[in-house]
Design brief:
Blueprint (H helix, E strand, L loop, with lengths): L2 H107 L5 H6 L4 H133 L38 E4 L2 E4 L6 E4 L2 E4 L5 E3 L4 E8 L5 E9 L2 E13 L6 E2 L4 E5 L9 E8 L9 E2 L8
Antiparallel strand pairs: 1-4, 2-3, 4-11, 5-10, 6-7, 6-9, 7-8, 8-10, 8-11, 11-12
Length: 423
């Protein structure tokens, strides 16, 4: 493979890795802005609730003011009625005064005649009885007039005091309620001001978020463009892989013709052994594929709870856990198409395979060390790297993926590796 192709592919993938990091940072900033907006929205909702409560209080106060004004109107009407009654009482008192004056003048005109004199002046017992009855009637009338006069005067004074007191209390309550309404109106105005201020701040943050999203979309477009370039470079590598496969087939055919059963081993140059110990190179299986490393099977292909984020996410490969440096081997014959760090994958090796006319890409992630470079032709079972804990990893393990076609991203062409290898 020409060295320029390998360098070009590595540069493209390094550039893609940088853009992916930029995208990740932009995404983080967008999430931060979203969180700030959510906080502001919560504050705004609280203020709106307070304003709603204040509006209810204002409505309640308005109703109380209306009720007080109604009571004041009733009191004023009652005062008018009492004034009329007072006037009538005053007229009655005045008439009684005149009557008493007339009686006093009559007594004065007749001398100092008393009720006793009238009784003693009777000519007969019947006349005495008549005179006694007349005197009692006059005395009762006088007493009744005085009593009524006193009662009316007391009633008049009491009504005047009660009405004035009630009127003063209602006026005080009215003033108090009006003051409360003014206070509530002031509070409402303050809350409206705060809401407008929050809306302004929210609009500013939303605009900032929009700018970040636009930058993010640009980064996505650039990433897609890089993916296309990477795909083009991988196609060149695929041609090498196909040529390798054709050469192996021709070699096998020649060996068959020459009846040389001991030549054409597909594992020459590999650093494997028959031992299956955990820290050793795994035994090579027959067929096109073999296990990439020895280790404990810790995570299957499919949806799972992510060990770092705690979210339910698709796991596009399988995990084999073992000690740092445990040998990792090529799962099939092919050409190394990537050998460098890649985002949360940490150190990564990708191998492109051409098997029976079908293109595959195998991915080996979180590596501690890499023993191959881009463009290297590798055989099934050949030692290519050491197991590690780089990138977004919670422990030493190998994350292994198989994709049908060239590798574009995790979700494209992903298949369950257990359909091809045995553990």
């Amino acid at each position: 493979m020409p060295a320029t192709y390998a360098e070009s592919l590595t540069e493209l993938k390094n550039e893609k890795s940088e853009i992916e990091n930029q995208k990740s940072e932009l995404k983080s900033q967008i999430n931060e802005k979203s969180s700030e907006i959510n906080v502001l929205e919560d504050k705004q909702n609280q203020l709106i609730a307070q304003i709603s409560n204040l509006n209810s209080e204002i409505s309640k106060t308005d109703n109380e003011i209306i009720a007080v004004e109604s009571e004041i109107t009733e009191a004023e009407e009652k005062i008018e009625t009492l004034k009329k009654e007072i006037k009538a009482l005053e007229e009655k008192i005045e008439q009684r005064d005149k009557l008493l004056e007339e009686r006093a003048r009559a007594l004065q005109a007749n001398g100092s005649v008393s009720y006793i004199d009238v009784l003693l002046g009777a000519n007969s017992f019947v006349d005495f009885i008549d005179r006694f009855s007349a005197v009692n009637t006059l005395m009762d009338a006088d007493r009744q007039i005085i009593k009524e006069q006193k009662e009316d005067q007391e009633k008049l004074d009491q009504q005047k005091v009660t009405v004035e007191k009630t009127k003063d209390e209602l006026e005080t309550n009215k003033s108090k309620l009006q003051s409360l309404k003014a206070s509530l109106d002031s509070q409402k105005a303050e809350k409206d001001r705060l809401v407008k201020e929050l809306e302004k701040e929210q609009s500013q943050i939303a605009n900032e978020k929009k700018v970040l999203e636009e930058h993010y979309e640009e980064a996505v477009e650039i990433s897609d463009e890089l993916n296309a370039q990477i795909a083009a470079e991988q196609k060149r590598l695929l041609e090498i892989a196909r040529q390798q496969e054709l050469q192996k087939k021709k070699a096998a055919e020649n060996a068959k013709k020459n009846n040389n059963s001991n030549s054409g081993s597909s594992n020459s140059g590999s650093n494997n052994s028959g031992s299956s110990n955990s820290g050793s190179t795994p035994a090579v299986s027959s067929g096109n594929w073999t296990k990439p490393a020895n280790g404990r099977y810790t995570s299957p292909y499919g949806v799972r709870i992510h060990p770092i984020t705690g979210e339910r996410k698709m796991h596009y490969g399988i995990d084999l856990a073992n000690s740092t440096g445990t040998p990792v081997v090529a799962a099939a014959d092919g050409v190394v198409s990537y050998a460098a760090p890649l985002s949360t994958f940490g150190n990564v090796v990708m191998i492109t395979h051409s098997i029976d006319g079908q293109i595959y890409t195998s991915v080996y992630a979180h590596l501690n060390s890499i023993n191959v470079s881009v463009g290297t032709q590798v055989s099934k079972g050949q030692h290519i790297a050491g197991m590690g804990n780089t990138g977004g990893s919670t422990g030493t393990h190998l994350h292994f993926e198989i994709h049908i076609g060239t590798w574009v991203r995790q979700s494209v062409g992903s298949v369950n590796p257990l359909n091809y290898i045995s553990l």
